[in-house]
Every structure is written in C-alpha cells, then in structure tokens.
C-alpha cells in the first residue's frame, strides 16, 4: 500500500510541476490522521516512531521538490533550444520584407545609379571646345542610360564635374537648380562655363581661315565645319551657305577662279557636301604647288635665268655695296645723295635691298679705305655703273675736300648662313611686290533700310553680334530688363568700360521695298556708335530664318525666298 502511494506521488509532479509542497500530502501524515480518527481508544505511538516518521516525511518532500525542479529545468531547456534553432536556421520561402522607394514615372534610383562610366569634365575652365564636347558626351550618356527626368539629370551631372570652378558654382546653386528644368540649368551652366561672346569669337575664326600651300582642302574644310558646329550648338544661326562663302574667301586664287567659273555658289538648293566634293575635285586636278617659290626672270637690271651669279663672301658683298654707293655719290647710311660727311648724316638708316646692275664690277678694295663724302643733289641714274669720283681711297679731283672720319661699322659681321637667309628674305619680298594684288575680304556687315511704323530706320546687320540693339532716340516704349546685360560694342574701339543694358522694347519691323515683315521683335535699348538706328545680330537672323550673303551683300529669307539688298 505504501509503495503504491509513493509511486503515484513520484509520477504526479511530472504532470503538474507547478504544484507547491503545501498541496502535497505525505502518506505518513495520511496514516496518522486515519489513526487519530479511528478512535481515541487505540494506544498512542512511541517517540521513536514519530521521529522516524518525520525523517521519512522530510526525505519524501526533498525528493518531490527535486523531481519538480528537474521537470521545470527540462522544460526551460527545451524552449531555449527551440528559440536558438529558429535564430540559426533561415527558413526558405519567407524572405524578409525590403523597403522600396516610391519613384515618379521616368525617374531612376539615384542611390543605386552608377556614374563611374560617365564622362567627366576636368577642364580647362572657359575653354569652348572641351566643354561642348563634354556636353555632347553627357547627352549620349543620358540617352544610353534612359535618364529623362529633369531632376535626375541635374543631380547626375553634379557627380560628373571635376573642375573646381564649376564645382563651386554647382554646389552653391544646387537647391535652386533642382527646382527648375534641365534646359534652364544648361543655360546657366553655359553662361558660367564659357567666355563672353564665345560664338562671336568662333565666327571671327571662321572668317579669318585661309588655305595655306601646305594644307589639303579637305583638312581646311573640316576645320571650318568643326567651328560651324560649335557656333550652331543649340542655336543654328550659321548657315552652310555662309560657311561656304568664308571657305571660298580663304582659298588660293586658282581654286577661287574655278569655283566662280563653275558657279558652285549659285546652285539651288545649296548643299555643302556637293560643294565640298566639287572643290576637292578641282584641288586634285591642280598641279602640285612647290614648297619654295623661285623668283623668275626680273627686269633688265637682273641677271638672266640661264646665268648663274657666283655667291660672294661676306666681305666681298659688303665691299661691292660700298663701291656701288660710292660710284653714285650716295651715303652709306641713308643711301641718298645728302652731301653729308662720313659720320655726320642725320637721316634715318635705309635698310632696303640694294639692286646692283649685273655689269657693275667693283674695283679692288684699297688698304686703309675710308668712306668719301656723299654728293649733294639728285642721284645721276645715267651714270650707274660708272665711277663719278676718284677711285676709292684716292684723293678726289673735285674742289670740295673730304674730311677725315673714323670708319663706322654699318654692317656687322655676318656668317654665311645669315647672309643667305637675308638674300632669301629679299627675294621673297621682291616676289611679293610683283604678285597680283588680292583685295581684302568684304566685311561681315550689311546695311539695310527698315520701317518701324512710319519711322525709317537705318539698320546694321552684323553676324558677329549676339544681341538686337536699338537706339534710345527712336522713341519706342521701353520696359526694364529682369536681368541687366553687360556688353562691349565692337564698333566702339575707344570705349574702356563695358556697356550695361537695362531696358528693352518690343517692335514690328518691315522692309519698305518688299512685303517682308518681322513682328514681335525683342530689342535691347542702348546707345549706338555710328550713323545707325538699330543693330541686328544672330537672334534676328535665326528667328526669321535669314541667310546672309557677304559676297552679294544681301539677306535671303528661307521661308519666302525674298531678298533684302545692302542699302
């Protein structure tokens, strides 16, 4: 009976480990209670039995408590193992949720956008060609990466700039830039990164291009086309016909004659590729021009081409010049018959080339030679080649005496290479005088007559101007500019300070000789130097699609085909 009760008690705590010792009843206590309840007639137990009963109850309570503690510890360890297993093992099919940014249509994720393969701008600052080349590369980069949003383009460009001045400009205005458009940001970037009037300077370079003897025509034309593409960057104001006119002005005379004879500039419609191909064909058909031009037969005073004059040494050349001047009575310093004694001439030195007749033979130079006194009066050309004075170094037969003077070294010691170089320069100068005169190219300005209401205006069309300017004296209604402009008039060469424009006016102009009208023109108001009322530049030409013909001195409207000729 006791064994059965003990076994049941051992199994009890495993099912209910949370029971305390007060809820459990020892079998010895149950037996005592049963004995007391049986009757008071039974004999009470002895002290030894009670003591043994207490010891056994204490042992029983300790065993029950230890069993409950082991069960609770086992349960805690099982739970701890489950938690550790959940932390160490990543179950498949249950990915952790990731945060996704909400992007507008067309935007890119700037945090993950890679700009390492984009074009970087490293300068130099305010150089036209590197900057324009970088802008083109940026546009290609945006097209390949499919970047179309304005804010994305402005933010990405900032990571492509490495030039210090542009970085400072970008960092100072980035908060305002992202609020605007990509076109507005580019306009501000162009105004800061490029020098003032950069298009005007490029047009000036095109105007002064010339085809040298050692340059191929294709190279010359490609250089002109490159400059034209930079001028027309986002503002096509320089037409192919105007470019062809400047290219023709830079050709050498043989090619210019062929272009004019075949009327290449009169083809309608004008195509620059066709023009370039025809001129290249003419250039290939011309005889090759030599690098060094040889001087041909000269006048009767020069030697014939078949006669080869032997080269003289430096001393003999100087003595030949002195002897020839002495024979004509001319002074060695000014090369004139001034009548001055040696060392007393007050005139300027004459370094022109001395033409000595081929039949002149210099006498031997005597020892102790001293320059004689120059003759007074006009030179006697009829006595060229003959002695008009006594032989060099001998007393003169004339009444005038020769004062002694020390020998002044007018011709320093020159080696053979320098003498040969001076002879080559003299030959080139003589040849340049004999060549045909080439007239200077016409100015890139056209004067036209315009009407503003009933007022006649004298207008100047200048392809180098980047603004439209009207005089204050015309009397138009003016309005203040939001942003004043600072300009420098090319016609006012004496002006030391730039001109600040603060007002503008709106006007409608017309041609009194045709039905051409130019409505809604925005004109800056300011003073104009010269007899002009208005200056029209590239904005006027591009707005109304006008082509300037410098050779014909006229304007052509591409829309109507009408012409406006120089006033």
UniProtKB/TrEMBL annotation:
Organism superkingdom: Eukaryota
- Region spans: Disordered: 1-47
Concerning InterPro entries, the annotation shows:
Peptidase_aspartic_dom_sf
The protein here is known as Uncharacterized protein
């Amino acid at each position: 009976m006791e064994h059965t009760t003990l076994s049941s008690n051992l199994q009890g705590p495993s099912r209910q480990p949370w029971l305390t010792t007060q809820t459990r009843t020892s079998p010895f206590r149950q037996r005592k209670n049963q004995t007391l309840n049986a009757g008071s007639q039974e004999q009470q137990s002895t002290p030894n039995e009670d003591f043994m009963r207490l010891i056994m109850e204490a042992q029983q309570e300790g065993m029950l408590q230890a069993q409950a503690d082991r069960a609770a510890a086992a349960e805690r360890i099982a739970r701890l193992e489950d938690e550790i297993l959940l932390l160490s093992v990543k179950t498949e099919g249950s990915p952790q949720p990731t945060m996704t940014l909400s992007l507008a249509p067309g935007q890119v994720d700037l945090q993950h956008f890679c700009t390492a393969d984009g074009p970087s701008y490293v300068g130099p600052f305010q150089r036209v060609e590197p900057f324009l080349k970088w802008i083109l590369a940026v546009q290609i980069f945006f097209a390949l990466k499919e970047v179309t949003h304005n804010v994305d383009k402005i933010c990405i460009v900032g990571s492509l700039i490495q030039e210090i001045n542009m970085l400072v400009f970008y960092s100072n205005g980035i908060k305002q830039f992202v609020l605007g458009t990509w076109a507005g940001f580019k306009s501000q970037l162009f105004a800061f990164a490029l020098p003032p009037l950069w298009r005007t300077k490029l047009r000036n370079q095109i105007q002064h291009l010339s085809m040298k003897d050692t340059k191929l025509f294709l190279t010359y034309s490609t250089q002109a086309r490159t400059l034209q593409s930079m001028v027309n960057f986002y503002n096509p104001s320089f037409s192919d016909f105007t470019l062809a006119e400047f290219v023709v002005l830079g050709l050498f005379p043989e090619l210019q004659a062929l272009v004019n004879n075949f009327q290449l500039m009169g083809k309608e419609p004008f195509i620059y590729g066709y023009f370039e191909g025809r001129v290249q064909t003419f250039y290939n058909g011309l005889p090759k021009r030599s690098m060094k031009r040889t001087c041909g037969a000269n006048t009767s005073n020069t030697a014939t081409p078949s006669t080869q004059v032997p080269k003289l040494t430096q001393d003999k050349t100087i003595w030949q010049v002195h002897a020839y001047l002495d024979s004509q009575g001319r002074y060695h310093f000014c090369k004139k018959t001034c009548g001055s004694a040696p060392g007393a001439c007050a005139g300027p030195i004459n370094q022109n080339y001395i033409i000595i007749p081929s039949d002149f033979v210099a006498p031997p130079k005597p020892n102790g030679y001293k320059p004689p006194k120059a003759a007074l009066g006009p030179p006697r050309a009829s006595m060229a080649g003959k002695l008009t004075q006594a032989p060099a170094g001998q007393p003169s037969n004339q009444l005038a005496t020769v004062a002694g003077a020390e020998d002044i070294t007018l011709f320093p010691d020159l080696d053979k290479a320098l003498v040969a170089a001076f002879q080559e320069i003299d030959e080139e100068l003589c040849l340049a005088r004999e060549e045909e005169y080439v007239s200077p190219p016409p100015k890139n300005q056209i004067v036209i007559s315009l009407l503003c209401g009933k007022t006649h205006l004298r207008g100047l069309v200048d392809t180098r101007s980047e603004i439209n300017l009207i005089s204050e004296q015309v009397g138009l209604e003016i309005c203040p500019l939001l942003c004043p402009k600072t300009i420098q008039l090319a016609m006012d060469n004496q002006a030391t300070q730039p001109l600040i424009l603060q007002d503008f006016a709106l006007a409608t102009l017309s041609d009194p000789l045709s039905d051409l009208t130019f409505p809604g023109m925005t004109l800056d108001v300011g003073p104009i130097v010269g007899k002009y009322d208005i200056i029209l530049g590239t904005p006027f030409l591009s707005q109304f699609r006008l082509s300037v013909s410098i050779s014909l001195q006229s304007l052509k409207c591409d829309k109507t085909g009408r012409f406006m000729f120089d006033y």
